[in-house]
Design goal:
Strand content: 15-25%
Helix content: 25-40%
Radius of gyration: 18 Å
Order of helices and strands: EEEHEHEHE
Strand order of the largest sheet: 1-2-4-3-5-6
Distance between the termini: 44 Å
Largest sheet: 6 strands, mixed
Shape: elongated
Number of helices: 3
Structural class: alpha/beta
Length: about 200
């Protein structure tokens, strides 16, 4: 039917990468001829985890693959999610995730640490992800014909806490060239802006 969309379930593999459990979506769907890979980094909301952005990865990659006109494209798209600091598998203090009204006197410091930590973690993962996934033709996302695959484009999508960190990642890392922010402040230090908790 013209105009209808078909959703597919996109592959997911969880890998230990540089000390983090990282979910990588879409490796199995990469066209065999894709040598240039775009990577969409997904930053989850506060009090959530990487599993909570899996549906976003599935929706975006499903739309990308069902709208693609050719399976012989040299461009591929993957999505990546990991638990932000003190969230999901990295939770060490529920109090540190609470707001001021919930009794957390260091809410601002905790939020700043989580935001800046997520930026640092993402930049480090950008440094090493390609080697883990494609590893000179031997990684789990290696091209079937042995061609070199390169991540040459990085994008970010963040929601709430993830929106804050997505903004900061865009400011800090020139390899991240575009972003989608769903609730998030670019400047949480200015007295002119009041950002949501």
């Amino acid at each position: 039917m013209a105009g209808s969309s078909v959703n597919i379930t996109v592959s997911k593999i969880t890998l230990p990468i540089a000390g983090l459990q990282v979910d990588v979506f879409g490796l199995a769907e990469l066209p065999a001829t894709a040598t240039s890979i775009s990577c969409l980094w997904l930053h989850h909301p506060r009090l959530r985890s990487k599993e909570d952005v899996a549906y976003i990865a599935n929706e975006i990659l499903s739309a990308y693959h069902t709208s693609s006109s050719s399976s012989s494209s040299t461009r591929g798209l993957i999505a990546v999610a990991f638990d932000q600091r003190n969230h999901g598998s990295r939770l060490i203090s529920e109090t540190a995730n609470a707001a001021w009204r919930q009794g957390n006197a260091t809410h601002a410091q905790d939020m700043f640490g989580m935001i800046s930590g997520t930026v640092t973690d993402t930049i480090h993962l950008i440094d090493v992800l390609e080697g883990y996934l494609f590893g000179a033709g031997g990684g789990p996302g290696a091209a079937p014909g042995g061609e070199d695959r390169r991540i040459d484009s990085n994008l970010v999508l963040g929601v709430s806490l993830g929106g804050h960190s997505a903004w900061q990642l865009l400011f800090a890392e020139p390899r991240v060239t575009a972003g989608a922010i769903v609730i998030g402040c670019p400047d949480y230090m200015s007295k002119q802006h009041r950002c949501p908790e």
